[in-house]
Write a structure and sequence with these properties.
By secondary structure, this protein is of the alpha+beta class. It contains 3 helices and 7 strands. It has a single domain, classed as Nucleoside Triphosphate Pyrophosphohydrolase. It comes from Saccharopolyspora cebuensis.
Length: 152
Amino acid sequence: MTESQHTLLTAALNDGIEEIVVGAVLADAAGRVLLLHRPDIARDGFAGLWELPSGTREPGEMVFETLVRGVEEATGLTVTVVGGYLGQFDYRSGSGKATRQVTFAVTTDGDSVQLSEHDDYQWAAHDRWDSVSPEVQQILQDWSAAHLGNRG
């Protein structure tokens, strides 16, 4: 991993980031990535979007704690391995906060997804990645090039 948890948190603070979201790229053996669908009635400004499993950092929480908690809360899956750092992007949350999403590759204890706040999920091959934001598409393309040898 090229970025330490401390470095990521310090950089975000220095950049005026108010909220950190930690995302996970979780793939199956075929290289399909788990995407979650936000309900169309969500009130956070991201209704109807497909996204990576993620969690918002709580005060005092380290990045990996957020990652593990966020994946488990969103999917019911337990993170067993935190892999490499895949990148970050900034955006304004639905409440207007300057937000940074940092993303890591992860492995979990299975693939039997149980949703909590999302209304659907899919194991998406590369030809379905256009259903996510351009920023997430870039992270997935970079992950694919590094981990799937450009086949994804």
